Amino acid sequence: MDSIYKVYSVQSETITETNNLLDFDLPAGQVFDLSKSYVSINCRMSATHASANLANSIFNVSGAINAGNNDVSRYEKSCALVKNAQLNSQVAGKVEELRDVNLLRSFLNNIYEPQTVFLNDEYSNLMGIRHYEDWGNISPLIDVSSEEGSTGRFIDKNLQIPLSDILNVGQVKQFDTRRLGKCRLSLELAMDRLSARGDNHNENYFSTLNNGTLVNQAGGAGGAELTSAVLARGGGAAAKVYDDDYQEHIPYYVGMPVKTVSGAFDGTDTGGTAVGTVFTEITDIAYAPTTGQITLTFGTKIGDIPANKTTADIKIAPINHGDLATATITLTQAELQLHSLGANNMGSVPQSINFTTYSVERDNASGNATFKRQYEMEPEAINTIVLIKANSDSIFSDNAFDGGSRVAIDNELTTNRLIDFHTPIYYNQLNKFSLNQGKMAQNVIGKNYLRTAPTNNRDIGNENALSFVVEPLPITNRMKLVEFEINDTGGVNDISVYKEVLKTI
To answer: Of 184, 231, 242, 380, which sees the most CB atoms within 10 A?
Structure first.
């Protein structure tokens, strides 16, 4: 019978920028299916606001990763937290080492996973992505509901990073520590890139697209406090109608902190008493099945409706990240979950493990419009990847060079022309590279997925943002020279050259 080993990191529990190393000891005497194994890290979110009205609110805050040049708008898979990795064996020495894990995996996952598969990593991630609803998304680090009388909470979420998303040996289905002895997995996490963000919504949805409006209310002869309201269609005169699955589509939840963003208390948006910015919390949400209307109840009043006056198009929206006093994400309790094969499922264990491993060579073209340079590559190297970065700290290859590229192996050009972006020959090179890995490209548009966006585009992200040069290599009996030519009118700067090499242990 198979079993699961939980191996805790030898370091202290809390992971920080200065305490960002993790070491896990794989026990000897077992056969592990590394393709089913993963690193698990406990994540917890917290946030505060200066307003006393929001003291008990459940903030829709999630994690974000700096993809380069302080850009936190991108959706990154959980492996983006891993900077460097190494696996060592007591018997065989170094099994595999990979630097800049996040840069390489952002490329490989992008081309080998369809969009739906890529985005479904949200389930085991610390950040959400707006790909179902136009209004935004709910953080995977909170547990909330739009059901009447419900309560929400911040939760402890186990961030999962598959070993196959860290090292290539993580794809091995029979890793025999009876032969290799005790092994140690060492990781360096990019904790300096991690931050907490409260921007999981599309602001345009509530304001510009007019979906955060409340139904207009009259103050009556004596005036009234505005403490609850029905959600309206744009304009505030008629209620918005939902069906029975309203909880899946309503952009509000019980315990949600919100603020007023526009509107007036005297029946006109111009020349009247503006509502101002008021922070409050949604304390209850009621659904009327007969009418389909949604009523929001607030913890504190939004304001007072004057006698014989009517509210006009008051809009409420989620608070902005800048409204928060603090936002913190904490990572603790790192453990390695190992899938150990039982005798009945083990079969014949091979006496050697065959896989490929990557090495990386960093270079800089000094901003030249034409970059041409040769690199020595091992005889057993079967593929090479050049990732071109717009910024020196990028973990996404995003410098879309506009002048084409070309490769020569041992001074023989592999194509009879420069290869321009998104042309048939460009995709042909990608397909040859993929087939040389025994895989098939699933996504050729090189998409930069965004956590949030200013429009209501469901197919979220920027297409053709990923830039790369790939080339399958022949196995030779000596070192081979591989020359890359990259042309970009804006200048080529930092590049990373990855070499995929066959390895046997």
So the answer is: 231
**Six token digits for residue 207:** 């304001």
- Give the tens place of pLDDT for each residue, 166-197: 999 999 999 999 999 999 999 999 999 999 99
Q: Where are the alpha helices (DSSP H) in 171-330?
A: 177-180, 203-206
Three-state SS letters, 314-371: EEEEECCHHHEEEEEEEEEEEEEEEEECCHHHHCCCCCCCEEEEEEEEEEEEEEEEEE
SS3 204: helix
| Tens digits of residue pLDDT in 267-288 | 776 666 888 899 999 999 999 9
Read off the pLDDT of residues 311-353 as tens digits, 9 standing for 90 and up: 999 999 999 999 999 999 999 999 999 999 887 767 788 888 9
Reported as type and span, the H/E element at residue 261 is strand 257-264
- Residue 399 reports pLDDT greater than 80: yes
* Closest alpha carbon to 482 in 503, 495, 465, 497: 497
- State which amino acid sits at residue 190: A
Paired tokens of 46: 């917290």
CA distance 24 to 86: 11
Q: How far apart are CA 176 and CA 29, in angstroms?
A: 8
Q: b or e along 50-85 (b: 16 or more beta carbons within 10 Å of the residue's beta carbon)?
A: ebebbeebbbbbbbbbbbbeebbebbbbbbbbbbbb
Within a 13 Å sphere around the CA of 500, how many CA atoms are in the beta-carbon half? 21
Start-end of H helices in 6-124: 101-112, 115-119
Domain ranges within the chain, ordered by starting residue: 3-199+329-504, 203-319
Q: Which amino acid is at 293?
A: Q
